[in-house]
Amino acid sequence: MKKQFTCYIFSVTLICQILFSFHASAQEVDSVYHDSLVGKKEEKLWQVRPIEVVPPVTLALAAFVVQGSISRRLQANLVGQQPNIHTHADDYLRYLPGAVSLGLGASGVKGKHSFGDQLILAVLSNIISQGATGSLKLLSKYPRPNGEDNRSFPSGHASSAFANATILHEEYGHRSVWYSVGGYTTATAVGGMRVLQNKHWLSDVLMGAAIGIAATKIVYISYPWLKKKVRHIRKR
Predict the structure, then answer these.
(1) How far is CA 222 from CA 9, 187, 227, in A?
(2) Prior bond to 50 cis, omega within 30?
(3) 3-state class of 94 per DSSP?
(4) What is the rounded distance in angstroms from the CA atom of residue 185 to the CA atom of residue 181?
(5) What mean pLDDT do residues 196-215 have?
(6) Inter-axis angle of helices 69-81 and 50-66, to 10 degrees?
(7) Are 155 and 124 contacting, i.e. CB atoms less than 8 angstroms apart?
């Protein structure tokens, strides 16, 4: 009974973090999208509101709280109940939300940005999130639960999955809440697979999610400024 309860707490905690991230940023996305439609100045997108900081900060703090004994006890219970789980689905699912967003843009479904801009935003978000994740892996040198290597913290799969989920949310969350729910559910599933396969601790997944969301938010906030700078350089 104790093991089942622990698994339940794990699932609820992770899913609640993701739903909280979506709920906290949903109004902000709608507001920014509305501003772009009515012709607000692009510079105003530089204004970082507290509501945008809460989700990644909460996830990062949660990662440090559960790191160590909590993650180790949870891992022992989960792997003990579900041994020998092996799948490559997480290698592909982490890109699915981003692929859906770009697919919608390419097919003519209007998002927050044009398809060309969406492509640039997706590339920048993934490069920054993976760059930050890789740097932290080298600095932390934290061992994986399966002992494979010392590149466990944070999870690159989770970082990529949540970056792509946030891209889908930013571009099409204003059209339907199900785009956001689907993207973050997929990202959560990727994180769960990494833990169940004994490749990552819960803290790795939470920090990876924080990095993915934060990186994408930074890219979206700074993109209007970047476009303006590029246009200015071209005019010279």
Answers:
(1) 37, 24, 9
(2) no
(3) coil
(4) 6
(5) 96
(6) 70
(7) no
Question: What CA–CA distance (Å, rounded) separates 114 from 120?
Answer: 10
**Is the CA virtual torsion 115, 118, 123, 126 positive or negative?**
negative
| Pair of tokens at residue 219 | 């890219």
CB neighbourhood size of 130 (10 A): 17
Asked if 61 contacts 206 with a C-beta cutoff of 8 angstroms, the reply is no
Per-domain boundaries in the chain:
2-235
Question: Helix, strand or coil for residue 152?
Answer: coil
Average pLDDT of the segment spanning 78-106: 89
Tell me the two tokens of residue 196. 């169940």
Does residue 48 surpass a pLDDT of 60? yes
In terms of pLDDT, which residue wins out, 43 or 216? Answer: 216
**Other Cβ atoms within 10 Å of 227 Cβ, number:** 13
